[in-house]
Amino acid sequence: MTAEAPSSIQSALGSAAHYSNGAVHIADESAVRSNIGQLVRLAGLGNETEQAWARYLVRLIALELGAIPASIHELYMARGRGEVPPTFTVPAMNLRVLAYEAARAVFRVAKRMEAGAFIFEIARSEIGYTAQRPAEYAANILGAAVAEGYRGPVFIQGDHFQISASRYKQDADKEIAAVEELTAEALQAGFFNIDVDTSTLVDIHLDGERAQQAMNAELSAHFTQFIRKHEPAGVSVSIGGEIGEVGSQNSTEEELRAYVDGYQEALAAKGDGLEGLSKISIQTGTSHGGVVLPDGSVAQVKVDFDTLLQLSRVARSYGYAGAVQHGASTLPQDAFGKFVEAEACEVHLATNFQNMVFERLPKPYLSAIYAYVNKHYSVDRKANHTNEQFLYENRKRAIGPFKEAMWDLSAEDRDKITAAWEQQFATLFELLALAGTRRYVDQTTNAAKIAPQRSFYFGKEAEQEEVKDLSD
Predict the structure, then answer these.
(1) Do residues 108 and 422 lie in contact, with contact meaning Cβ atoms separated by under 8 Å?
(2) Which of 227, 254, 401, 461 is the most buried (most CB within 10 A)?
């Protein structure tokens, strides 16, 4: 490997790959693909030096073997211009648990179906409670692509890079700076798709939609300018905006137009002809994680597909790809085909993938997780909630502390989870009409090979945030 790296890094790849002066030479591709998982594990569980080397080398190896972090911006803008048909919906998948194994299942399905239009993402909140900084999450995804022999653009996204309304009220400049710092970190890690979420600052008590959306529009333009300033040369980051907090009242055409008109004016005022958004997230009836019933099951929720279709077409009238649906993974399976019918450009999926893990964990693991949650988070128990509701809503907060335990699941237990995931991804990809979408990606996407900065990987890592007031 290289004498610079710790022995654990050297033993992971041996003579199969050699690092020198910011580049990797692959001597044995098959061995690298077989052993990349060892590097990915060190990227999450190693000591500080091992993590730095592992994350850096996974990124370099992925580039060398053709798995390239990319922006979906060009594909979305082509869809907005009518050059790509609105006949499929891009899934944006939040892989909170065993992200490497989950992503491997995604890439296996994608290769079989010749699918290319899919996104891996993690939210500001999830980064906190899963203990996965952007560089680690990217290593999981890119390492999975290497392991499965996937070549082509890999879309990694910062989901809900959200302003906390309460923290903004206390110190606006500090909260804006926190989101800027996370955005810069994510860009360095290969996140070339960022969903800006300042919809928490929409004030419905003001008179008229334009006034209600004013702060949202202004700050969205601010973060757009920040992203364009920090994005690497040769990449136009895909930026999403949001007009209404998920789980509240359904969005309207008047709100969407007020937001977009205000945003475009604010962005134009910043000069330099800055490239704007490629999509807009709206609210049509769902809530993040579903609605939990007293017995711990998830209530069926309804999506207003008529509103989704209407607002997707309004968004495309502005040249955007369409509307984005959040919080959809716990919907009934037969609902997913309707996103395609409603011409939604993107749908965000997270909680069900997490639930599939908890449902298949050995009882001793699950008992340990619930004991941890009861010990550390009982102060957050709501008076009117049953124990089942409390555990369902809070068990995700054990994902970070139990990361190593998840890696150490037996092969049999892990295979049960990954087999269920792969079947679910295949079903979703079929329902969202992703088969054959690789051709649209290849036709539109400029997958520039951006060399990672070694100083980023070997610098001081940001501390995890308290995130319970942020959306997933």
Answers:
(1) yes
(2) 227
